[in-house]
Amino acid sequence: MPEISPPTAPPQNAHSALDDAQGIAYGSLMAALSIVVLTHLGFVTGQTAGIALLISYTTGWDWAPIFFVVNLPFYWVGWKRFGPLFVAKSLFAVTLTSALAAVLPHYIAFSTLSPALGAILIGALTGAGLIALFRHGASLGGIGIVGLYIQDATGFRAGWVQMLVDAAIFGAALFLLDPVAVGWSFLGAVVANLTIAINHRRDRYIV
């Protein structure tokens, strides 16, 4: 996850409300597209999205409402550390991502997509989407919020926190999914987390 926390006071050249809206919309779209690719290939991912996918695979329930519900308890951490605006933006991003992930499969399909390319595509889409969300003071909730909290409090990069959590989720996935699919899934998570850890840092942040 990223290396940024919302500022305590808006900078002089802060994003406008319209800037935030388009940034969150873009980030949510990229995240939802990554979920479409994930479910098409039968892969899994990290943080609460991965937890929701595992529940979806084992129960047959739709991913979108599971993802929305799983994130709810984590908003308390975001509210306590980053304030109501961060939580409101994150809630909007999670809701929009959930809605788009439910709708997009009706408008996009894949006839051919190799697992290797799919894993890289998933990582690239996820990384781009999350960077957009973080730069506009939002996240996709869940472990992302906890990662931001740990990073802000200790300086330990949230991307590395996320990677450790992802490893635990993928370990659990080995008991539920094909090990080959889990391996490709882990490649996608590595691409996403490295993209964020390398490209999203405080000294590169542009408001």
Any key phrases for this structure?
207 residues
The ordered string of helix (H) and strand (E) elements is HHHHHHHHH
Instruction: Estimate what percentage of residues fall within beta strands.
Output: under 5%
Distance between the termini: 18 Å
Number of helices: 9
Q: Kindly provide the radius of gyration, computed on alpha-carbon positions and rounded to a whole number of angstroms.
A: 16 Å
Structural class designation: mainly alpha
Q: Main β-sheet: number of strands, strand sense, barrel status?
A: none
C-alpha geometry? globular
Mean pLDDT: 83
List low-pLDDT spans: 1-13
Helix content: over 70%
Number of strands: 0
Quick structural gist:
The protein has helices spanning 17-41, 47-59, 63-71, 75-82, 84-103, 115-135, 143-154, 158-173, 179-199.
How would the blueprint of this fold be written?
Blueprint: H1 17-41, H2 47-59, H3 63-71, H4 75-82, H5 84-103, H6 115-135, H7 143-154, H8 158-173, H9 179-199
Helix pairs in contact: 1-5, 1-6, 2-3, 2-8, 3-5, 4-5, 6-9, 7-8, 8-9
Please tell me about this protein's structure.
The chain has 207 residues and is mainly α. It is 70% helix and 0% strand. The protein has 9 helices and no strands. The longest helix has 25 residues, at 17-41. It is globular.
